[in-house]
Queue: 3 jobs
Job 1
Amino acid sequence: MTATCLQFLSFVVSALGWVGILIATSTNSWVQTCSHGAASCRRFDELGSYGLWTECFTSFGIYHCKNLADILEIPAYVQISRALMITASILGLPAIFLVLTALPCMHLGSETESVKHKRSLLGAILLLCVALCTAVATIWFPVGVHHEKHLYNFGYSLFAGWIGTALCFFGGAVISCCTGSAADRTENRYYYSSQGSSSTTSPTHAKSVHI
């Protein structure tokens, strides 16, 4: 019962983490930049924002946004962060589906428990890969911005990515642990049941031979 509750809780947590990763991928408020001193930027409201898809800045009191569409001009850390976040977003869909269909309350035809455990373990591995891709992207991007521009603060998109990373990592780790323990219990139950059946049938068989 405890393993079932943990598996269901991990599914909910992982789904929320994947939603956070989708929000981080689709929005552009990753970091706030400042081309001058921090005090000057706050005083004259000249803070800019930099994300995976657009760069926004304030010039003469007017807010401008520029799409980062030219691949040849985009820095390498932006391109790699894009690829990692897109990969994490795509891998999250089959991971959530596998974990959902592997819940104890879900049954697909006449499948055995070992098949459900394998599907749950595969979903957990995919969730860990999602967390790894997002962690690399959300750490590498602000470091790259810090070296190229004047990093002022982190944006809500980056926080959404960090929260999604933590939730997916937690969900994948717990699901993998619950899957292993459930598989061991199933194997032990099958072993003891087979031993019990053999012990009950052996006296009857011996009696028939004696007669």
Job 2
Amino acid sequence: MPQLGYILKMISQTSSGLKEECASDTLSPKVFTTAMEEIFKKLNLQERGLNVDGERLTDLRFADDVALITTSVKDMEVHLNNLNIESKKIGLKIHRGKTKYMTNYQSEETIMVEKEEIDKMDRYKYLGQTIMLGEHTREEVLIRIKAGWSCFGRYKDILCDPKLPMCIRRRMYNQCVIPTNGLWC
């Protein structure tokens, strides 16, 4: 697949993942997704990751967000460094300011990528969901309720307009406000 390598070398990483002049191009997200798929195929991840029903779960990917899953901090460091090496080969790089890690146990271990320490977090937001250790359900529910009210406020004129049929207002509420709460997860 030499053409893919040629295309990807012309694309440089910015905070959004792709060169700004390519951002409006509908092909850019597809090229980026293809590039990420090729990178992950080259990584040897069979022995890393979390065993879920006999399958190894090593990562979750959505657009340019990647969550890596390992069973130890050392494996995470190896995984990140390998990802960094493979990404650089095609002109992409890991955004150090956005790269964080979290463990589900107390640990003083650190993760280094190119002699830089990666920040350890006790919570982070992935695809709109706050992930944290311990029992923080109440806090997450309050965050979701606040987001719901904020969304409701944006559409208040439509949702509270008595001139509009209730079926339209209900549909607007169900499609815009309810998904913001995310409480069905």
Job 3
Amino acid sequence: MVNPSHLTKEVTAIIEKFNQLTYHPYIEKYIPSVGIDEEKCRLFYASLSKKASKEDAFVITLCAMLVQAALDVHEEVTLHPVHSDDARKNRQLHVLIGDYYSSLYYHLLAGSDHVPLTRLFSHTLQEINEQKMNVYEVNHDEYAEMADHVMFIESGLYGKLLEEYNLSFDKEIFEQLFFYKRFMDEWNNWNSDRDSALIQTFLKQTPVSGHQDALIQKQDELRASIQRLYVSHPDFTDHIDQYLNEAIQSAPVEEMERKVR
């Protein structure tokens, strides 16, 4: 396992390289909030570096973060009709900037003698986009099916890369943590009256009066799954703790109670 000081040094270097590659005044003007997901970066590098060389772990983690940023930008593209030139321009810029971020991984892999990995990245991106279509365009009745789609969207790229480096055992860390983060983000969105296909599907068969209890119970189930990671991955406990502390939103229980009152 990489030691903490080396991990911090490498993650800092990846962040600096990411910012160098993606910075453009025009992008900063219109989409200033886009950046690297530092906690995902730290977690992925910590796992990948167990088998990959320092150089490979750096480049592949950087490429994964660029693809993650592209997915995050595309996630902000509204699917609703737009009726103003400014809104139309904003949507087009999000699409173009996401595509630009995504293209950077190909350049980096080709320049670092990792051309075969470009196929893995492109195929996984295609699969993620197909899963997104399943989430947003299919009328789901089964929460389990929806959850499977979302889990792959959130962790599929990392899982495929870990498989490539014979680290399949670590896949469940990313599946459980990243899905939990998505669930909590969606819960907060839904509680703020924003769309959440995941939460709406989960609550479809639950009376309104039971929504809070159902969500709290599901959160407990997800946390129990994460607790089992401490047993199966004892060398990763500090990283799991840090991700939970830094990346996960709190449950909006008090806000839900105020709404009920």
